[in-house]
Amino acid sequence: MARRTDSSDEDEAELDDAEDDGPPRRSRKRTGRPTPARGRPRPIRGWSREGGTEPDPASSEKDESARPRIFWRARDSLYFAPLVALAIVILLVVCLFAFTQNWPPVYVVESMSMQHGSSDVLGDINTGDLVLAQKVPNSTIQPYVVAQQNGYSTYGEFGDVLLYAPNGAAGTPVIHRAIIFLQWVPSVGGYTAYGLAGRPCGNASGAVYATPGTTTRAGVINDCGTTDLKSTLDLFHIGWADVNVSIALQPSLLGEHSGYITMGDNNIGGGQGTYDQSAGFQLSQLVEPGWVIGVARGMIPWVGALKLWIEGSSTTGEVPPQSWQFLGLSVAGIILLAFGLHYALRVEGIEDPRRKAEEDEEEEVEDLPEGNASRARHFLRSLRPWGASKDEAEEDDDGASAPPVHRTGAKAAAPSKTRVHRGRPPPKVHRASKSKRPDPEDEEL
Q1: What digits encode the pLDDT tens for the residues 334-392?
Q2: β-bridge pairing 161-164 and 157-158
Q3: Which residue in 198, 155, 197 sits closest to 178, CA to CA?
């Protein structure tokens, strides 16, 4: 009897070579296929000409119902920004009207009569400024000679600045400073100067006023009188330019009524001040309290220069050059402040979290790589009934797949990374067991 040789090791090597050289043989026994789900089959999405996929109506309706509903916001409208701007303007106008009790509440300074020089001085009234005219009781108005005693000043000088209608007529109001209030005395045809009583006068040290040529009712000449004045009233050291003002007490010029002597801070020349009721000016008679529109109480610098420029006013050239520079810087600062507030509030996250989540999804879709291959890859991944593996997700994000590994024999190196199958999963193959094959020599025996 011949001895049986054990060739199991050689047979196993041959089987391994056969498996590597060709595809594995399928088992004759078929595996059971999964029973298809009953009901309406899932529709297959079609490809559009642009390379994308047509939306699935059923899935889109399901997604819409599952997603939390985001309500419409007012700021999503195209009219939101204009309406907000209009609301802010209306609110400002209402607040200004409530403060001034006047309509209109602000006025544009159209001349340089109130400037302290030819340049723009912040805090003073310059050409092109917007001045708020507040309606106040007449008893609270303080002219220059009265405010000088108690130290009350506005816009760089003593006394209140009045906005009044010249001679009480409708038209462009005048904005000048009240200097002194004169009371008309019909019985003597003269005036009484309030606020000068007890002040140094004449040739005294620090004299404030003088009344040369004034005679009393008894016929005595009084150069320091304050009542029944009919000749001349001289005021010393008035205004920022420290000028003298000589007032001719003539009813034909001042009018036979009581009122304020007014003068612009910049109406000076040759050391003398030109008041509104002077013979060479005659802008108005004594300003009666009923002609006063309001008292200057606050201002918005430089903004009124735009109105003068748009209207093509002849006084546009009187706007100081510094005003245009300050106006440009202010506009630029407001724009930068608006953008800063916008981005600051956006970073803080004042938006609806649902709206923010939707915007993040839209940004992710926009960031996807372009191309038919990328769209097809995402479409196929959405059709799979199983989730994509971590390696596949990383592969899709990088936009490149691992190169295929070719085996040349049984001793070929195994791939360092398991390949992920795409599309349909690989079929299960039942391999024959590696049992010892019958020896041919035994069969012969």
Answers
A1: 889 888 877 776 655 555 566 666 666 666 655 555 555 566 556 655 555 544 444 44
A2: unpaired
A3: 155
Q: Which two tokens stand for residue 354?
A: 């649902």
**Opening angle at CA 181, ends 179 and 187, nearest 5:** 145
| Contact status, residue 366 vs residue 408, Cβ threshold 8 Å | no
On average, the pLDDT of the chain sits at 75
Integer Cα distance of 15 and 26 in angstroms: 15
Phi first, then psi, for residue 70 (nearest 5°) are -105, 120
Joined tokens for residue 145? 């000679």
Structure tokens at 110: 């159209």
Please tell me the distance from the alpha carbon of residue 248 to that of residue 54, in angstroms, as a whole number: 95
Contacts of 217-220 with C-beta under 8 Å, sequence gap 24+, read 217/188
The dihedral of CA 282, 288, 291, 294: what is its sign? positive
Residue 395 CA: distances (Å) to CA of 166, 328, 374, 426: 86, 55, 12, 20
Distance CA 245, CA 272 (A): 6
Query: Do 210 and 172 meet the contact criterion of CB atoms below 8 Å apart?
Result: no
Is the per-residue pLDDT at 20 higher than 60?
Answer: no
Distance CA 275, CA 182 (A): 14
411 has a pLDDT exceeding 50:
no
Q: Kindly report the backbone phi and psi dihedral angles of residue 155, in degrees, each rounded to the nearest multiple of 5, phi listed first.
A: 55, 45
Single out the residue of 99, 88, 120 nearest to residue 304, CA to CA. 120
d(CA 142, CA 273): 19
Cβ atoms of 303 and 132 within 8 Å: the answer is no
**198 Rama sector, left if φ>0, alpha if ψ -120 to 50, beta otherwise:** left
Q: Number of H helices and number of E strands within the chain?
A: 11, 14
Here the tokens at position 8 are 């199991």
pTM higher than the cut 0.70: no
Q: What residue spans define the domains of the chain?
A: 73-103, 104-334
With beta carbons less than 8 A apart as the criterion, state whether 211 and 231 touch: yes
Nearest to 125 by CA among 107, 139, 141: 107
* pLDDT one-digit tens code per residue, 119-171: 888 889 999 999 999 999 988 999 999 999 899 999 999 999 999 999 988 88
